[in-house]
Design brief:
25% of the residues lie in helices and 27% in strands. It has 9 helices and 23 strands. It has 398 residues and is α+β, with helices and mostly antiparallel strands. The chain has a single domain, classed as D-Amino Acid Oxidase, subunit A, domain 2 (D-Amino Acid Oxidase, Chain A, domain 2, 2-Layer Sandwich), CATH 3.30.9. The relative contact order is 0.16. The radius of gyration is 22 Å and the shape is globular. The longest helix has 17 residues. The protein has an 8-stranded mixed β-sheet with strand order 4-5-3-12-13-14-11-19, with helices on both faces. It has a 3-stranded antiparallel β-sheet with strand order 1-6-2. A hairpin with a 6-residue loop joins β20 and β21. The structure holds flavin-adenine dinucleotide. Keywords: FAD, Flavoprotein, Oxidoreductase. This is FAD dependent oxidoreductase domain-containing protein. It comes from Exophiala sideris. Its cofactor is FAD.
């Protein structure tokens, strides 16, 4: 990474609409820090987040009702704008005089039937903020980055880590290795099913200047029943993603803690190794079905680009921030479960607290390796079903 990077911007949601009171409190603190940071806040856009659903009896409608009540309590009723009908949901984006697409024109009926907008939520330019943090780190003499060669493996003697070996063969000794490699963590330490890498489909659509003006004040819009998540126009494009069951990419690798054995893991397949990959056909079709109803002008527009983006998921959606269960000198800081970005201003301190043994008991318990709880926070539910094998269905850009 560095100022020479040429990745396009990407935006993520910042909000505290968690049903789980612990995450709600942490998210509130993190959001305030971003708002009060003169550098980060330049890239924060408080345009609200709308949660819609089809209103039919299902776990998604149930979650929608629960999150609405939670949002009213946490953010205050003055920040909640309810949209009780299909037309109101549509008009919230397209203006009061607009007319929603007739249901007869939609295969499978309408899905954007009721919604609420939480005006306190925001979106943020993730790339710019990471750059700001990187630049700050570069000014701290004790911080140095080694770019260009990833960690190949962690060296372990007995049950004590000694440091890491990079892919280019460089040996780095360290008293403590923090595994914060997101969906790539499973190759560095054995995590079994405690953390599972899952890929999700994301696409970007270019908008005209007139469209950017027309939709500039829209909120981030998420449909819990279909899984679609769509951002307002930002730098000439709209980001769309889907909370589908996701994809896996099964590979056989050496067991990180016993190289004489092999294990199968899901491992991120990205455009770095497979530059022509584009999202599977069913993912594109599902996104377009949503667009046809809620953003009809974009329903048939070519995607500028699409990606499978990888997250590190845990069964409960809780992060994994804890010492390695059996190897001294390794600390785990992974399991972001698709919702960790918003904690960026505070998560580093919490990782340090965890390493120093000063993390609050409730967070020690929440982020522990061995957990009894199977309760899942449903603030950002995935669609039902198991992840599909990506290599069987991935398509290629011609
Ligand atoms: C499509 C999508 C949308 C999301 N939207 C939101 C949102 O709106 N709000 C929100 O709060 N969260 C969101 N998230 C989740 C959020 O992005 C993650 O929870 C967060 O990025 C996790 O941070 P991390 O540092 O643990 O892992 P990552 O961000 O995945 O970072 C891991 C880093 O480790 C590096 N790495 C991997 N292997 C090695 C190695 N061997 N050696 C050296 N470096 C290595 C990788 O290159 C990468 O830079 C979203 C995630 C996705 C995929």
């Amino acid at each position: 990474m560095g100022s020479q990077t040429s990745f396009p911007s990407t935006v993520v949601v910042i909000g505290a609409d968690y049903v789980d009171p612990i995450y709600a409190q942490l998210a509130k603190v993190a959001q305030k820090k971003i708002q009060e940071d003169p550098d980060l806040s330049r890239f924060l856009f408080q345009q609200g987040v709308t949660f819609a659903c089809d209103g039919h009896p299902s776990r998604f409608t149930k979650i929608w009702k629960t999150t609405l009540e939670t949002a009213k309590t946490l953010s205050g009723p003055e920040n909640i704008v309810e949209q009780l009908t299909r037309d109101q949901v549509y008009q919230h984006i397209h203006g009061e005089s607009s007319q929603s697409v007739p249901t007869s024109e939609l295969k499978g009926g309408s899905r954007w039937n009721q919604a609420y907008c939480n005006l306190s939520a925001a979106f943020i330019d993730a790339k710019e903020c990471i750059q700001i943090y990187y630049d700050r780190c570069m000014k701290v003499p004790s911080i140095s980055f080694r770019c260009g060669s990833a960690v190949d493996h962690i060296t372990v003697v007995g049950s004590q880590s000694q440091g890491v070996v990079l892919e280019n063969g460089t040996n780095i000794t360290a008293d403590m290795v923090i595994v914060a490699a997101g969906a790539w963590s499973n190759k560095l330490v054995y995590l079994g099913n405690r953390v599972v890498p899952v890929g999700h489909e994301v696409a970007w659509v270019k908008v005209t200047e007139e469209e950017a003006r027309r939709w500039k004040d829209m909120s981030i819009s998420t449909n819990l029943s279909t899984g679609l998540n769509m951002f307002p126009p930002y730098r000439g494009e709209i980001k769309i993603l889907r909370r589908s069951p996701g994809y896996k990419n099964t590979v056989v690798v050496a067991h990180p803690e016993d190289p004489t054995k092999q294990i199968s893991i899901s491992w991120p397949r990205t455009i770095v190794s497979n530059p022509t990959d584009i999202i599977p056909a069913d993912a594109e079709a599902a996104m377009r079905a949503d667009l046809r109803e809620i953003m009809p002008d974009l329903a048939d527009r070519p995607f500028d680009r699409s990606r499978i983006c990888w997250i590190s998921t845990t069964p409960t959606g809780d992060f994994l921030i804890t010492p390695h269960p059996s190897i001294a000198g390794i600390h785990l800081a992974t399991g972001g479960s698709a919702h960790a970005w918003k904690f960026m201003p505070i998560i580093g301190d919490l990782v340090v607290d965890s390493m120093e043994g000063s993390l609050s008991p409730e967070l020690v318990d929440k982020w522990a390796f061995h957990k009894d709880s199977t309760a899942k926070d449903e603030s950002s539910p995935r669609m039902d079903g198991d992840p599909e094998e990506l290599k069987d269905i991935v398509r290629h850009r011609l």
